[in-house]
Amino acid sequence: MTTPSAGAEQTRAAVTPPQITVGAGLTRPRGHRLQVVDVADLARVLGEQPADVDGWWSPHVWRGDTRDGAAWQAACAVALDMDRDGHAALPDELARRLEEAAADGSLPGSIFHRTPAGARVVFALAEPCSDRDAFDRAAAGAAQALAAQLRELDITGIGVDPKPHRDLARLYYTPNAIAKGVRRQAAVLVMRRAPYSVEQLAALREADEPPAAPAAVQPPRAGATGAVRRARAWLAKKEPAVQGEHGDDQTFRAAAALVRDFDLDDEDALALLLEWNQGCSPPWTEQELRGKLRSARRNGKHAPGAKLAESPPRSAQPEAGASITPAAPAPFSIASVLDEQESRLERGTERIATGWTRLDAALGGGLAVPSLVVLGAPPKAGKSSWSQILAVRHVEAGGVAYVLDLENGPRRVLRQIMCRRAEVGPGEAARALADRRTGVFTSREAVERWNAAKAWLRTTLGPSLFLECTPPADLEARVAGVRQVAGDRKLLLVVDSLQKLPGDPRDDRRTTIDKWIRTFERLRYQFDATILVISEIRRGREGYAAREDAFKESGGIEYGCDLAMTLNRPAADEDTEAPATLRVELARDTEEDPRGEVASYRAVRPWYGLEEVDPVPLSKGRRGGRGPEPVKAEAAREFLRQRLAAGPARVSEVLGDGRAAGFSESTLRRAGRELGLASCTVQLKTGWRLP
């Protein structure tokens, strides 16, 4: 972007002056060129690109302006992405450190801007480069210099993407693009106004020290204890870390096991980690591994010596005649329990607010952390909606939630969450998820609510709400991964439902359920989590019972959980429109006894909402009694008012949405007559409109 030097003559591009390619749409490879004069001009052009859907730019230009590596002509810059493993959202502290390093000139490069999973650094070239090999060397040098500086600044948890070395058709989202339904709004920062020559960047690769090789494997200290032997045997079974396959997380877990679970000192842990490191691709440097150990000792969630409390394998037993070092006090001695309890008393009981005013007041602020909470309910009582709303509210409040939903598939869960947020019917939501065109909605307001709901889901829920609809092979490992993402944030686990969890085929259902309760008891303390487990309740001769011993197929729930609740309707099997009443059956972590009927929840049709109201007493008659008068007719009338509030709609569509919301066709037609709906024509079909 300045007058080229004589030494750069062989890499002079046929394309002058410097140009970039811009376009929109990932499936539309053709773009158009924009001329850039210098570094400041390039930054201005990038920052002024419009907020197009999938708007992109590329430092490359191609013959015919069609993105094709075979038609590559030249590049005017090297663009490097710094991303977290799995493109996870960038933590605020890491983002702050990157921005500070860019602002004070600590990072190499010309231009810097944030991305959702990291940041992008652009090295502007002094003149366009049309030599493929020369560009490859320059890109490799820039990447190596950037990665080395990140290590020098001790900025971990983020890596430099190596793809630009090979991909001459690479494109990048513009700083203001609408990508995956979310608009990016990244400020573009000029770090250096002087551009780089191709030779200068290539020299960084040659002049810079090569990545430090792992230090020679050091054996554990003489007289290694049984803990070292057991740790080595455990580590030998773990797959080595591979870059691009969550290798950073894999290494952290290995380090955490050594310094926390096996309670090794740093030198013994480093010696074992270096042995395991030989299989990693690429291997970590000794400095990086020491950093992992420091981080694991500081942030690991397991109690010191957790694995030492387990019975050692036969291979780890001391040999006959070997001297045995006196063991440290047991990590789970009664004294340690007292210490932990006193520590919690000093901190006070942490709680996760449910957002249900009456329930939070009864429980002293919400669900205790850590705790095991069991919610029993019959079919169609609203337990899935209740727990979904709780998980979403927790994430919106800054927490992290892991939902293991074995009752509903991922599409159904998505549809329900989107219906609640956008306040649209399930029929509209299903059509909108299957067809990106906005014509599936009947009003402009509905379109705007739907688009806002998609953006909210991606930016607010996406990074912190994890959904799985099939049982993981190793639930403990899955929870460990979510806890690592959560860091110091409160963690909520939701399991729906207990009776759907798999078990040993040799066990009966009661034994399986009790084993899972024991597992959840352990996980709540191990990961400092609040675990909400949904359970079915028994149906007796007088209907579904709401009482402490009503939980299906288990005699251990009431003994293992910290809070047991039931959600039941006065006539759950007769009137699905009756409010569901929440009762606290057992509570161990509250100053006052909250047992009894706390609140009722009325369905908000048609978008799977719930409204908390004063508790409706549960009748004692057969099948739970009739309870209050059925409200289905009024609910149907309210559904029609809301469905037609935006304007006339085809009768077939209204009836379809109504059936999806739980109303029969006859109920809807009767409600329509009661409202005095007028007939009209909508898209050449019979429609309804409000009078």
UniProtKB/TrEMBL annotation:
Skewed-composition ranges (Basic residues): 292-301
Domain SF4 helicase: from-to ranges: 345-614
GO function terms (MF aspect): ATP binding; DNA helicase activity
GO terms for biological process, alphabetical: DNA replication
InterPro entries, sorted: DNA_helicase_DnaB-like_C, P-loop_NTPase
Annotated region described as Disordered, given as residue ranges: 284-327
Protein known as: SF4 helicase domain-containing protein
Organism annotation: Anaeromyxobacter dehalogenans (strain 2CP-C)
Phylogenetic lineage: Bacteria, Pseudomonadati, Myxococcota, Myxococcia, Myxococcales
